[in-house]
Write the structure tokens for this entry.
Amino acid sequence: MTTDTHSTSTSRLRHDPLVRGLGWASALLGVPQVAAPAAFARALGVGDSPRHRVATTAVGVRELTAATGLLGRPRPVWLWSRVGGDLMDLAALTRALKNHDGRGVGRTVAATAAVTAITATDVYAAVTRTHRSAPVELTATTTVNESPDEVHSLWSDLERLPDFMAHLDEVRVTGPRTSHWRASAPFGKTVEWDAEITQDVPGQLIAWRSVDGADVDNSGEVRFEPAPGDRGTEIRVTLRYDLPGGPLGKAAARYFGEEPHQQLDDDLRRFKQIAETGEVVRSEGAPGGKRARGEFPQHPARPLTEGELKEALA
């Protein structure tokens, strides 16, 4: 990974509200643990013996170190350090509960519940802000019974892309070769970026890439080639991007029904329908769970009802 990539990632995290919030949380927890370890330990209901004071001070130093990293020059490693620290805290609190003499046990239980919630937040932040793999590359192909010029013209209408691309919420043209995109991402997140068209050859090719500052760096191209036997146009799509959360994010996306390869195939199927019929064919029989299928519900073929038949013949 290049220095420029590190700088871009740091810049994004520095302005990330969740990352900054976790940084301030570390600072607010660390100061009293270092300044008054005995009082802090008593507040947790674990006692203020020398061993507990030393442990509390060590945790406070760890929190302040994480705060310095997250508020100064944030990188995913600081988020993962919080996750590691959370697991250590949970282990310590669990041991304290097992060996508790009964005094202040309610406070210890409450502290354990709070740390469990914080751990979940830290894991979410670390996974969704970590990019550990090379950019994901997706490819897909379909054949549309229209000419290359017609298909190219339809795809070039960027503001219509959300009509068939399930993950896209909005594409807004901002200039002759620039546009702003907003899309849904795993874990219910929304990502946005500005993009520029790098190549546009009528009837042959459209290529684009995101500009600096994108939530998700991405690029891609769509090639339009005459299909064999004069059967319309063969569309070849290539997408490259960093999936939020790296491999963990990819696994989670697949688990929650947002597997990117299948999503791209579904997008092309809907594009083919729009190009050939002017609309997406709908069916109630599409299986639930996949967001794309939920947004583009389909209805199985069925005989017309008596009322519908009368209306059609009227």
Q: What stands out?
A: Strands lie at 136-144, 168-173, 178-184, 190-201, 205-210, 218-226, 233-241. The mean pLDDT is 78. The longest helix spans residues 105-128. Residues 3-128 form one domain.
